[in-house]
Amino acid sequence: MASTDIQQQQENRLNSGGTGMGAWLWHRAKPYTPPWLVTGGAGLAGVGANVMWADSPWAGVGLTLASTALTAATWWAGKSTGPQRRLHSAITVAAGSAWVTASALSGPLSGPLPDLYLMGGATLALSWNIRQVMRSSAPEGSGESSDKGLLEKVGLARTKLKDVKVEANRVTVPYELPAGELTHDDATKAIPRIASALDVPTTAIRHQVDPDSARKGQFVIVPEDMLKTPTVWPGPFAPGQSVAVPLRIGVYDDGSDLVLPLLDAIHILIMGMTGSGKTEGALDVLFELLTRSDVAVWLSDAAKAGQDFQPLLPALDWAALDTPSAGAMVAAVQAVIPARTAWLRDHGYRAWEPAAAVVQTDPVHSCASAGACGCDGMPYLVAWFEEAAKLLREMGDDVFTGIAQEARSAGVTLVVSMQRASGYQLSTDTRASLPAAMCFGVRGDDAGFALPEEVLEAGANPAAWGNKRKGYVYMVSAGVDEDLYANPARTFWTGPSGEYERAAAWLVETFAAVRPQSAGAVTEDAAAKVAGKLFTARRECAGAPAPAEEAPTEEQESARAVAALVDQEDVDLDASAELPPLDGGGQLPAAKPSPEEARELLDELVATVASVGPGTIAVRDLTPYLDQIGRDRSWVSKQLKRIAEEGRLAPTGEEGVYRLIPTLAGV
């Protein structure tokens, strides 16, 4: 039937006289009659109870117990409703049952019972009518009905909201999804719509799931961005203490400290686009490190020659500010790892701890057969590679893989800082070996290179900042509460130019006596063997390119190349040792092939070996021919990479192993 016909019928009924008007009034009043009917029923129940049990004392006891039980049952049944409705229901049942009990024992017309019935009954009935009117006319966006309406709009219909916790600039909303209808993925996808409904940025909403339930979780809403005004660096967090104490480097959006537990983090990836505040965050970490008593810092910055860190260079144990020095630092870090691990093993340490940084006076940690050995301590070592993309282009995307995988137990932390840690720049194995990450503003989907998928699903979105919110960061690390992973933070501001220099100069001078004077004899000896003058003269050069007469020897250069490129199964070989004489008394060629001849010979050997074998080639396959080439394994490894870059070999996915392109094999 058309809506106009229905409207016409209603108008005819209203205009037809008393019957029509009465029907309309009854229709409008009918939803409000139940409380009055219940009141009338209570009066009849009181009269009937008086007739039956007026003279029975046992009936009075029974009715009193029944009244109490009914009130308690009402309170228990209202557990799933709101607190107002629960209390209102309990008071109504208690008042009604008490009047019925009194009426049964004394009579409905005795004493004040008639007045209580008329006034109290009408009051309770009207209170329920008022509640119904308020609920039906409440504007959208308020109360329980508005919650349901909001949830329906954002795609979470039938979701139950639990006790909402409201704090200063923080609202926590626990939820329970309908069984079998929605999942946590649906809740995550609803974040943009919730943000739209509440008119807040998407970064203001975080989604935290209950690890023990597939239906329960909570939304955390921070409506006001308290990070808009940067916090000036407040000074060192734990001056003169061990690096085992976490580093305070900023604040979360709720005002709590952003702290980095370095020994739990192990290795760190710092990523952010130009202008995102990545360097400012690096300064905060370095400011903390350089106030601690048991950590040495090696810093490489070949891209900018240490432009942002000049005031801090005097406090660093080694600053490598050009590509040759940076390459030497990579090789030195690789060389010191087994030396440091051996020292820790010999002194009874399963992993580095603060006691390892001081003179060994504890017999428990002694390398001597009896008593304390008195050996000098071994400070913690942080190897920091700033703007590492340039170094990776020069040395290969897997240059840090061995360091990241092996340095965990050697008291060495690797820090790799770059704008975009894509697979083209940083190998997958290396990224997997960097368990901690600080992700500043990025473009598009680049956050996936640094942050785990579950953190992004929880609401972390550094792409929303880009380079517009300098210093804003998400931090993921062992030792940090997982609920904080998706919480935005902001690193401290070290001040404008001039203020930063003064703060850095104060820090360098004030804590000069606190910092260890070196990385320890074990570390220095191992580094000097592969880096030569680039390491031993590091404080005089301050990272500048070494003069020609101080260039590393051929043996040192070869050792550094081997440390960077040698296969893992051959890590214990001495690449600088002389090759043994040939079997049968033969002698090595008197003249070493020229570089061009060696490359031509290698091409022929690659084609020959790969064509008669499985179609793949690796350095180990060419080891028997090293004497003919007149070069070592590191040179061969570099040349295989060169051939692959020229398109004549193809990577197989296995490190150091290549597949032969058919044209090279003559197929």
TrEMBL record:
Top-level taxon: Bacteria
Residues covered by the FtsK domain: 255-449
Keyword Secreted listed: no
SUPFAM superfamilies per UniProt: P-loop containing nucleoside triphosphate hydrolases
Region (Disordered): 576-596
Keywords in alphabetical order: ATP-binding, Nucleotide-binding
Residues the entry annotates as binding ATP: 272-279
Listed InterPro entries: FtsK/SpoIIIE/SftA, FtsK_dom, P-loop_NTPase
The protein's name in its UniProt record: Plasmid transfer protein TraB
Protein's organism: Streptomyces parvulus
Lineage: Bacteria, Bacillati, Actinomycetota, Actinomycetes, Kitasatosporales
Gene this protein is translated from: traB
